[in-house]
Amino acid sequence: MNATTSLNSSAEYKERGASGKRYFESLKYAKHVITHPFDGFWDLVHEHRGSVAAGTTFLVLFLITYVAKLMFTNFQFINAPLQYINVFEQCGSLLIPFLVLCLANWSLTTLFDGKGRFKDIYMAMCYALVPYIIIQLPLIIISNIITFDEASFYNVLMSFSVIWSVFLAFVGLMEVHDYGPARTVIFLLFTMLGACIIIFLVLVFFSLLSDAAGFFVSLYREIAFRLN
To answer: Where are the domains of the chain?
Structure first.
């Protein structure tokens, strides 16, 4: 019995070790993705070089970077009223549209021969955020060192991080779905339209739900008042 338990524990330990090793390898693979995006994104999905866990890590780091940027960037370079910043609200304002865009892209491309699964789209979009993280985080420190006269240097790097990430997202979706550039552009436009429709429908649903809940609460109060 003890021998069996020992063997099971050893197997579980090796499995956790293998999972941990794969996780760190998929994190390190981001370096290849951002420098060789066409090969990188193809292998990320089709050769299983990436992982959802690593992608989620990059997404969390992106949210942390964005909030840290609002809170700690020198006031000369950003106008953010700290007393009104809600961390959860700021994270939600980015996380929800991000997930909705992934869902909209998956929903549309599934109907038009897109090869990517929702998991693949999510991973590609998350890995595309890496340049934003690695450039914007140091910029927070740099903003507190340089003067306002050197703002052009800060603005160029900030714009470059965003452009790089957008380019990677474009290439990532192109490789995930095995589309050409023109078709990817078309579906990106439809993705944004689809995301707006999804958000609109969700808002309408919650509005109707709120109205229905209010009606039943009012009805209950009216009945309770008349019975009393």
So the answer is: 2-227
